[in-house]
């Protein structure tokens, strides 16, 4: 079943508009009037599905998490060797950084706007990073590394660091730099198992 199968057309338009506006402009800068206008969904209908804007944004981010993770897994699933799959993450990131409308990590951006660690938007953001870590850890586990947990954490730092540099500096090639650092990290971690 597709993730959107249980959603009405108006809910899909609403979540699409919310995700697009929040990703481009931020949570605080995105008002309900903009969401209503962009989605074409009446305010009354919105509040039938979501109690408030925060719930709507959290729902849009959950949906983005599903799509982004599927994209990332698809982009990195071609190489048969787990080590090559780990290294393929960085060219995939560079393609994303070079794509029109790149505004960094929607989850880091959203979490940065919310102070309360227990807030639903922060929870969704944390769950996204956990899913990304779990995927990287799964790949690292197939590489005969001394400490795949630590390697996965270090790779997550390289991934998020590259995303931040690409956004702030406008330099998509930082993904290649992160990829070179990942290659060094993996070679070092693999040599410690011998």
From TrEMBL:
<dbReference type="InterPro" id="IPR001647">
    <property type="entry name" value="HTH_TetR"/>
</dbReference>
<dbReference type="InterPro" id="IPR036271">
    <property type="entry name" value="Tet_transcr_reg_TetR-rel_C_sf"/>
</dbReference>
<feature type="DNA-binding region" description="H-T-H motif">
    <location>
        <begin position="31"/>
        <end position="50"/>
    </location>
</feature>
<keyword id="KW-0238">DNA-binding</keyword>
<protein>
    <submittedName>
        <fullName>TetR family transcriptional regulator</fullName>
    </submittedName>
</protein>
<keyword id="KW-0804">Transcription</keyword>
<feature type="domain" description="HTH tetR-type">
    <location>
        <begin position="8"/>
        <end position="68"/>
    </location>
</feature>
<keyword id="KW-0805">Transcription regulation</keyword>
<dbReference type="InterPro" id="IPR009057">
    <property type="entry name" value="Homeodomain-like_sf"/>
</dbReference>
<dbReference type="GO" id="GO:0003677">
    <property type="term" value="F:DNA binding"/>
</dbReference>
<dbReference type="Pfam" id="PF00440">
    <property type="entry name" value="TetR_N"/>
</dbReference>
């Amino acid at each position: 079943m597709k993730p959107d199968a249980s959603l009405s057309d108006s809910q899909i338009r609403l979540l699409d508009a919310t995700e697009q506006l929040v990703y481009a402009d931020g949570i605080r800068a995105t008002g309900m009037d903009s969401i209503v206008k962009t989605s074409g969904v009446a305010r009354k209908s919105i509040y039938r599905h979501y109690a408030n804007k925060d719930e709507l944004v959290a729902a849009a981010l959950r949906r983005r998490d599903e799509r982004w993770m599927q994209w990332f897994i698809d982009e990195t699933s071609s190489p048969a060797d787990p080590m090559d799959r780990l290294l393929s993450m960085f060219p995939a990131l560079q393609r994303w950084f070079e794509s029109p409308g790149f505004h960094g990590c929607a989850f880091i951006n959203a979490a940065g706007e919310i102070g309360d660690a227990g807030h639903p938007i922060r929870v969704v953001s944390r769950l996204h990073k956990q899913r990304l870590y779990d995927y990287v850890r799964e790949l690292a586990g197939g590489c005969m590394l001394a400490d795949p947990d630590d390697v996965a954490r270090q790779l997550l730092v390289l991934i998020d660091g590259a995303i931040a540099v690409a956004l702030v500096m406008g330099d998509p090639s930082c993904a290649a730099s992160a990829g070179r650092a990942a290659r060094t990290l993996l070679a070092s971690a693999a040599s410690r198992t011998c």
